[in-house]
């Protein structure tokens, strides 16, 4: 059930092109996303991170239009409002080794311009939701890789974002944490638009309501995880039904 | 806020018929939205059982609640502390380096004779330079470890840059003043004015080139200018740039730079990305 109503589309990308010099990282991507957990699959170099960075308002497009929460990103005036409603976990993110988990998350709560009185509780909520409550006062340099990743997720969700962008969030998480993380995604996806870039087809099968497969800068498949399974019924490459679907989608795109 | 909890979801929430995961979302929304809190209160008021239940259980709940989370109380001063403390400029190593450099400059300047009866105004040369380097280090060089996330936040643009610049000045200016006073350096007004002009010019230029490059350009221009003015007129007690007569010029430059920063403030929306220059198209 969808607990809330949102006017319009959370993410609306039309004919997005991003070039780095002569290399075309994204080559005409169309994407419309609403509430729910959306998986973004694709091989190395497909353009997942580039798409995430454009949506995070960190990188700019070469051409095409991108609007988030009904605000056109090319309008500088709206940028600030959109950014307040964003959560972003980059594929690689730096942290401040001397900060405690709590200070780190709080830092981003302030950068996201949250109401001062709401900050303390929101910070504690976010830390609790990623299962780091017992390590909240530890310095980041003392955490394991997977715990750092979770601290990164906590900063991304601290402002209860309407659009949450997670680039490889499960990298380094142990199996138990991965299960809890998927549950977290599901709860956030109830009233927000969550986009998860990943290599782990399993994450998508379990946690996502929708899947987009990108290959060579193009969106080559859009549908539900079940649709992706169905796409792979004729292939035998891959260990699970959804992996077969993924392989089939990439192959079909390359043949074209 | 562009959306609100639906009436259907609110009544499900009020009567406890809602799924746990949805309750989470509703609660998060309620903490932020006055309108939906009011709607929920109205919803709950029509439910006699619920109203009584709330009235009776509230004292017990309130007794167990801390008024805020375990994070320090959320206030504007706390915000400033956290935002400034995250910058590399706030680190002790940088602070120590600034103190040592200024003290050395002041000390050396006081004991080293310069040409025909002059002294090198070393403190005056170095003091305006340090804040620029500090700002570059704390913002423009990609040294801020989390710049990728910061760039996606509304508070990560010009506001953070100004805050960090102010915090750098707050360190270097007093240290420079003390060092000058101890070593008997003359009036600090000329180098203070120059410091202000240089840091503001750096910010203005940064709206075009990014902070790192702006700091390098302004720093190089400052050193070159000083060398030229010192070489050009050896009869003066101090290089023209550090002369009291230059103060009004520095103030004019400062005003012009502030105007540029104000006009071009939107350019800072994207400039916190020095590690990916190609993306700043
Ligand atoms: N800053 C950059 N400068 C130049 N080229 C870039 C830059 N960022 C990405 N690219 C190129 O764009 C293409 C897409 O890269 P991207 O990082 O988006 O892929 P990805 O799908 O995230 O890959 P991975 O699965 O390895 O994370 C690649 O060919 C990459 O080399
Ligand atoms: Mg990537
Ligand atoms: Zn509301």
UniProtKB/TrEMBL annotation, chain B:
Gene3D superfamilies: Anti-sigma factor, zinc-finger domain (1.10.10.1320). Keywords: Membrane, Transcription, Transcription regulation, Transmembrane, Transmembrane helix. InterPro entries: Anti_sigma_zinc_sf, Znf_put. The chain crosses the membrane at residues 80-108, 120-140, 161-183, 189-208, 215-234, 246-263. It comes from the Bacteria. The keyword Chloroplast does not apply. It holds the Pfam family zf-HC2. Residues 8-37 form the Putative zinc-finger domain. This is Anti-sigma factor. It comes from Phytoactinopolyspora halophila. The lineage of its organism: Bacteria, Bacillati, Actinomycetota, Actinomycetes, Jiangellales.
